[in-house]
Design goal:
There is one protein chain. By secondary structure, the protein is α/β, with parallel strands linked by helices. The protein has 2 domains: about 100 residues, Translation factors (Elongation Factor Tu (Ef-tu), domain 3, Beta Barrel), CATH 2.40.30.10; about 150 residues, Nucleotide-binding domain of ferredoxin-NADP reductase (FNR) module (Rossmann fold, 3-Layer(aba) Sandwich), CATH 3.40.50.80. The protein is about 20% helix and about 35% strand. The chain has 6 helices and 16 strands. It has a 7-stranded antiparallel β-sheet with strand order 4-3-7-1-2-6-5. Strands 11-10-9-8-12-13-16 form a 7-stranded mixed β-sheet. The protein has a two-stranded antiparallel sheet with strand order 14-15. The longest helix is centred in the last third of the chain and has 14 residues. The protein is globular and about 50 Å long.
Length: about 260
Amino acid sequence: MIQQSTATVITHESMGPGYLRMTLVCPADFSTARPGQFVMLGTPGNQLLRRPFSVHRLTVGGNGQTEVAILYKVVGAGTAALARLAVGGQVDILGPLGQGFSIREDYERIFIAAGGIGVAPMLYLLEHLALTRSPDGIELFLGGRSREDLLCLDDFRSLGLRVHRTTDDGSDGAQCFLTHPMEMEAQKRPPDIIYACGPMDMLSCVAGIAARLKIPCQVSIESMMACGVGACLGCAVEGASQDGYLHVCKDGPVFDADRLRW
């Protein structure tokens, strides 16, 4: 059920230069959010439109309090205003929205590909997977421009995951795109599913690898949105021939990779 409400900031921490993680106390209805879904936040000041943010982490306390975390990068006026919010501040929130990741019980070997801020929805996905699966079957491929763009490493390590780190400049891990070690590992022993989020060029490459190796693949698309509910039709992406145009906020943000035209 989609709900519009006011949420209160309870933590707001730096995750690296320009990156922040904000945790909000939300109404109980937000506890139904699934990995891959998102919320729309109103930003302080005179920002007319809400901004979309993936559900980065969701926690329901023993007292029933629902906490939703978002991970974001300061890139413009809206996120700059958001970054100035202090603990105790309030923000307008709409959600949970969109289509999340499809998780089947028979998915045992799982690859996660996360590039840059595309890591945002993956922590919640991995924490959800960890409830029912051994971390031995999950491999995370984490990429960024430099070591400062490899986010949430401590969170992922606490889950006992095998993490493949890559950077464009070689400042941490291998100096290559994350798709290189992912393809090598997939050729040795294909996973049951690949989940990916990141820049479109990265997702296109991931989708190509999955298609060549006949591996199911789901991608979370990042897009600017005005409404978040499919009314404005401003977040269109081109689907495969049988699908025409799809809308990230309503049909996604998570899509089967073969539904999109790359």
